[in-house]
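Might you be able to check the backbone structure tokens below? Thank you kindly.
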Amino acid sequence: MDEFKSVKSADSQMSFIFTDARKHEIMDILPTRRLHHLRDYFLNYSYEARASVKTVVVDMNAPYTSLIRDVFPKEIVIIDRFHLVQLVMRSLNQTRIKLMNRYNTSRPEDKKVYRKLKSYWKLLLKNKTELSDSDYRYQRLFKGPKSSMGIIDYIMTLDVEFKATYQVAQNLLVAVQHKNISAYQTLVLSENKLISPQMKRSLRTLKKYLHEIANSFKYNDSNGHLEGINNKIKMIKRISFGYRNFTNFRNRILLGFNNKRVAS
């Protein structure tokens, strides 16, 4: 289940889409994402059809989880791991920006640090296992050779809060990568006073969806194919210079994916 930017005639200009996670086929597209409309739509299916749904993959949208429990009696709600990683990396990047702005002063030495934090943002968001401590390359901002791990080590010396936040983010990435539920839950549930407010807020969100995220470690279902479909929908909308009518837009999307649910 997901939503995407739709036509102006759609409710809040957003449409709701859901797919078959195994076949990667679009099941339907609705002109609204309001819960009472979605609830009425799904309740039109027979109880047997709704009971046959075993897993439902969503992002961290609280209303959708309540909807799923209302209409699917035997569901297992899964929070996609992609959204978990996205949330953690966004918090780390916000912490980096806060630290970077602290060095945005008129002092030449501060400006040098500012430029480094601004230039090496991609490196900070990389998985630590992808970094090297032996591959030295000339780095203009350091005026000499430096390995990617050496750059990270330098940045870690700048601020205690950022170092703690970076370590928590990296440990979460490793736990997700290896599907280590116990390590993930320990990181989320433990109190860490040194990390940034942004990361603390993200950990509270992860704690709220602890059970649903744990399901993503047990099952291989994900919304990866749906994110791909949404990207193709954006492309369809762009090359068509937009749509005014929702039905026409919906039919064009379904035709683009060779779907037979096109309205006559």
